[in-house]
Design a protein that fits this description.
554 residues; 5-stranded mixed sheet; 3 domains; elongated; alpha/beta
């Protein structure tokens, strides 16, 4: 189930439908039809205890699975023999595979996935054997180390990944020798290719794979920018020079192989991602009627040559950063694919009151690509960072600036807190923000008020049920929300009084922006509220009512 979600589709229902295995399965656990890419995926998964030493997989077991290729592309008798030994769901999957391959010309990808080990010799020999059956079938063998790499990809947001991608190398008229440049680094095993593709075919990559092409990219599609407008202008007015004016696209992958198919050569990539050229690819998808060509660079980074996943991810992140200088990159962008950002995005969508968390900068139209339920609010990671600081630290620390929150303070802010707790910080911020009105003094005081509220209310918000009810109150129009609004408005009024009583030092008036950004001002404001007499008693009553109301929901 997890493998299907990671490799094919992150929708649980689609992943569930792809599972066909049972106690009497015949070499097939997963069956998935990728209509966009006209490809059938069949997978056999072998589970072993990951805590134990990985056993060596038998060559006969893998070869039995690989023989599906012989049955699909061979004679009918061989196919019927295979079907007879399968359960009902696998029989249906095999018959559909035969139909799609023989009548519709779909390609076939066989995936043998195990938490055991496969010897390099068996892997290479069996892969070659299957490739000799037909040029439209491929065997992929993933052992324990490969599966662990998939887990890392999942943690960094690269899911569902792209199992396989073919790039058509443009045959350039009048070129001497090969149509591509190849470079191999002996020490690292990193291989690079540079070649040309038709612009239309680059745009079709987005048609086939959608936003997952850019999982490792640190931004989304920015839509209307000066650079994107210039791309469109060149396509419309000077397409023959697009190859010369545009920087092209850069892809990273785990492996790449030049593969002849008929009279053309394709570059077959596994685990590919476009790390530079998202804007170009999306514009070419939007304007497919062009005779332009595009420069393409492919960088194959074999994980087995990198001793640790952290080193691999750091290398990929550095490639992304180094190749994305046309549009400005800030510190928050560089954290877009951090595992904590990915976790927050996924967990927020699972809440009883779902929140759409935008961990990447992107155009507003990109929101339609989220496979998300109806959400109550959308929020970006900068707002969440500010809320965490305001609630749990001295709000004065926010004066270092938004981007610096994602540098020195990042690990302190995003410290794997529960999603419900993160969401509670956001609720307080939204409640206080809508109560500030047009008074600048209240706007600057809001972080101090948010800090006060969290320190006073958090003792009542314990356990998942209370957290969920608190979120519902924040997003609803019920009486409990009105209670929070009353409390917030009273505190904002007191914050203005706090400023008026203390803004002057030696006859010099301090601006409210600077006053509320002083270090330790949160402690002083708390004392001011405690000594406010009738106002303090009114606030305490509201807080007690809040606690009682929340207790009744548990």
């Amino acid at each position: 189930m997890w493998y299907a979600r990671n490799y094919f589709n992150e929708d649980d229902r689609v992943a569930q439908d792809a599972s066909v295995g049972a106690s009497c399965e015949q070499d097939i656990d997963l069956f998935y039809v990728d209509n966009e890419n006209q490809t059938i995926y069949l997978a056999q998964c072998k589970y072993h205890n990951p805590a134990s030493p990985a056993p060596i997989e038998s060559r006969n077991v893998i070869n039995s699975f690989a023989s599906i290729a012989d049955a699909i592309y061979g004679n009918r008798e061989t196919f019927d023999s295979l079907v007879e030994r399968a359960n009902d769901r696998v029989q249906i999957a095999l018959k559909k595979t035969l139909q799609y391959v023989r009548k519709r010309g779909y390609s076939l990808r066989l995936y043998f996935v195990t938490l055991g080990k496969v010897s390099p010799r068996n892997k290479s020999e069996l892969i070659e054997r299957v490739s000799n059956v037909n040029d439209q079938v491929e065997l992929v063998i993933l052992d324990k180390s490969d599966v662990l790499n998939l887990v890392t990809n999942y943690q960094h947001g690269n899911a569902p990944s792209i199992p396989s991608m073919d790039l058509n190398i443009e045959s350039v008229t009048g070129s001497r020798g090969s149509s591509f440049l190849h470079r191999l680094e002996d020490k690292t095993g990193i291989e690079s290719w540079i070649f040309s593709m038709r612009a239309k075919e680059v745009g079709q990559l987005y048609t086939r794979f959608g936003p997952r092409l850019f999982n490792r990219n640190i931004r989304g599609f920015l839509d209307k920018t000066y650079i994107n407008d210039e791309l469109v202008k060149t396509l419309k007015c000077d397409a023959q020079h697009f190859w010369h004016f545009n920087n092209g696209i850069t892809l990273v992958c785990e492996s790449a192989k030049e593969t002849p198919i008929g009279d053309k050569t394709v570059m077959r990539l596994r685990g590919a991602q476009i790390v530079n050229g998202q804007q170009t690819t999306r514009i070419l998808h939007r304007y497919p009627k062009t005779n332009a060509s595009v420069l393409v660079k492919v960088i194959g980074v074999p994980r087995r040559e990198i001793t640790k996943n952290e080193q691999y991810d750091e290398l990929i992140d550095n490639l992304v950063t180094a190749t994305n200088r046309q549009n400005s990159i800030n510190a928050a962008d560089l954290k877009s694919n951090d595992s904590e950002q990915v976790r927050i995005q996924r967990e927020f969508l699972k809440l009883k009151c779902p929140i759409l968390y935008l961990r990447k900068r992107q155009g507003i139209h990109e929101l339609s690509h989220f496979n998300a339920p109806k959400f109550f609010i959308k929020v970006d990671k900068v707002e969440l960072a500010q809320c965490v600081v305001a609630c749990t630290m001295d709000p004065a620390r926010l004066k270092i600036g938004r981007q610096k929150l994602f540098q020195k303070m990042y690990s302190e802010i995003f410290s794997r807190r529960p999603a419900l707790e993160y969401a509670s910080y956001l609720v307080l911020h939204r409640i206080v923000k809508r109560s500030t009105g047009k008074d600048n003094r209240k706007s600057y005081a809001k972080w101090q008020v948010i800090h006060f509220l969290w320190q006073e209310l958090r003792r009542y918000i314990k356990g998942a049920d209370r957290f969920n009810h608190f979120l519902e109150w924040g997003f609803s129009e019920r009486d409990n929300k009105k209670l929070l609004d009353k409390l917030t408005k009273k505190l904002l009024i007191l914050a203005v009084h706090f400023y008026q009583d203390n803004y002057s030092t030696e006859g010099i008036r301090e601006e409210s922006r600077d006053f509320f950004a002083r270090e330790g001002q949160n402690v002083k404001f708390h004392k001011y509220v405690s000594n406010s007499g009738e106002s303090q008693r009114y606030i305490n009553q509201l807080i007690k009512k809040f606690g009682n109301a929340l207790s009744r929901t548990s």
